Amino acid sequence: MTIKHESQKIAEYFYTFAVVLFLVQVLVGIIAAVQFIWPDFFILKFNIIRSLHINAMVVWLLVGFMGATYYVVPEESETDLWGLPLAKLQFWATAGTVTAVVLGYIWMGLNPQANSPIMGINPLNEGREYIEAPRWADILIVISVLTFIFVNFMTMMKTKKWTGIQGTLLGGLTFLALMYLPGLFYTKSMVKDQFWWWWVVHLWVEGAWEIIAGALLAFMLMKVVGARREVVEKWMYIEVGFVMFTGILGTGHHYYWIGTPGYWLWVGGIFSSLEPLPLLFMVWDAFRTTRSARNVTNRAGLFYTVAHAIFNFVGAGLWGVIHTLPQVNKWTHGTQITTAHGHLAFYGAYVLLVLSMIYITLPAIRGVKEFNASRAYQAFWWMTISMVFIVLTITGAGMVQTYMERLMGLDYVTVKATYNLWFWILRVIFGVGFLYGVWIFVVDFFKLGREPMPAVSAVPGEA
Amino acid sequence: MSNKAARNLFIFGSLFFFVIFLGMTYDTLGNLDKRAPEITDEVDAGKHVWHKYDCIGCHTIFGNGSYFAPELAKITEKKPKGYLKKFLMDPKAVNPAAAMPKFGITADEADKLLAFLDWSSKVDTNGWPPKPILAVAAGVAGQELSAGEKVYRAHGCSDCHIISGIGGTSGPDLTHVGAKRDRAWLIGHFKDPDDYVKDSAMPKVEAPEADIEKLADYMLTLK
């Protein structure tokens, strides 16, 4: 397995940056977990640490998608990338902007007054969850994404091979860029603020990102098991179609309690309850395609791909649907139940997706036919078992919180500091387990294809 | 189904649902101002303070945020404003157990922030957060309360204080207060907390003398 077009190598730049940010995300995640037990632990307090934790995640997944796209588009278009130097510039500009934003958060953590508005605009942190990045960085991010889409679009225009996969990928990326815009203006009303904010957050992760995931899943199934394009693409359309049909109006499950009209309880409740179905299709599709496979070229890649499909369904689907009905959500909204769902959903839907893309494309980029996959499996089990237990402990904490705070009426701080203490302790322990898994993955990422293969034919008796 | 049919289903189906979504968005935006009080300049200034200190980095508002610290949309209904203002400016000075750092919020910023949070407390949120059902049930069908307990409830003391695990954590735990304080101290303290505890953020108990005495008697039973 080698790459067909030299310019596909640019994917590795993006992967490397993504992998480093992944490690940063998990390191600060452990600091945040410890702060649930000792709020004064560490020089940077929870608000900064948490901003770093979720922003590192959003950025590394996005950067991972970009790397994957730069790999997929030349392959699908059967030509080299249009404007490779522009793509490299886009990479360095993105990395520079992200680093500046991170330094800004740290500065604000050391000196909160540094975020005082300059001409009405907060220079370091917008103070809006997930889209904390200040306005100047928003503009640079928009330019970066537009440049990225432009390079890929021009590449497709070179040969005009409009495959379903790259058309869907382009559609998902354009939708992603468009849905960043509702987060770019100030509203006086906190209700409208949150209304538009959900356009960005929900229509990204349960809209644009799922379209990209569907396209990449189709690509990977073709690559690793040699599935037929017509079949894979047809199911891709059906899957991403149903993700949209349920997901767009499913946004309503965020409009129950923020000051929006009551009809959203009906619309959000019904459509978001259907959201797990397309994710279940994807699992069935992955298994069906894999069963019919004759020659698997990259077992580790296939392993991660199927795991992605399963945990997308469990994390985003099942852990979401348990608290999506308004009758349930009335009691669980704003508790740790949401945190538990967030962790498993992002891990299953997007972390495993980017890692599968890396395991499927990196060997080709490094020009190796085979690689020793033992570290890939080790990393998977350490990460996945740890994440499942992290999610179970947070779910437990959320159930205790829902019962004691929301049903019994105990004080928030009492429940958090006393009754949930053991859950926080367990979460830190499993967090360290997760970090160990990530570390194995990071080591594997840098060593893959760069060390000699162990002797395969270690047949007993052979001297 | 052919590939082309599947593709068209995806594209036009998505557009169909997006158009419905846009229509509902239009209707919702037209309704929002009726469901919330008017936004004064002070409320808007308070929202700017909210963003400046990245309050959502720990708290939630309308249930959205970071789940690390209490929900704030209706906080001004729960705690006295005088307490909240002092707390915002220097959390650990009024509650040594507080996890919130001192950010350097000024008195002016605290006033604006409280105006903003007053606004958020009056937004029609379709009944969220719901009243805790067990606490409500206990209040209706609970055992006979003593005269002092009735005063304690009527003044919302448990919003900030805990007795035997029930109540808020903003003020000191009162479970064993009767073993630490005498009657004269308690009565004097209720009338003017600041005289007895330096920089106290507790509001004065505005009640008739008889009620204050009953409250003190109740405190003395807590040992």
Distance between the termini of chain A: 31 Å
- Uncertain segments of chain A are 457-463
Examine the secondary-structure arrangement and name the CATH architecture of the largest domain in chain B.
Answer: Orthogonal Bundle
Radius of gyration of chain B: 24 Å
Main sheet characteristics of chain B: 2 strands, antiparallel
Shape annotation of chain B: elongated
SS-derived structural category of chain B: mainly alpha
Mean pLDDT of chain B: 92
What's the total count of β strands of chain B? Answer: 4
The largest inter-chain interface, given as chain pair and residues per side, is: A-B, 78 and 76 residues
Q: What would the principal axes of the Cα set say about the shape of chain A?
A: globular
DSSP strand content of chain B: under 5%
Arrangement of strands in the largest sheet of chain B = 1-2
| Series of secondary-structure elements of chain B, N-terminal to C-terminal | HHEEHHHHHHEEHHHH
Count the helices of chain A. How many? 15
- Oligomerization status of the protein chains: heterodimer
CATH superfamily of the largest domain in chain B: Cytochrome c-like domain
By DSSP (H or I, 4+ residues per run), the number of helices of chain B equals 12
Organism (chain B): Candidatus Sulfobium mesophilum
GO molecular function, one term (chain B): nitric oxide reductase activity
Domain Cytochrome c (chain B): 41-121, 143-223
EC number (chain B): 1.7.2.5
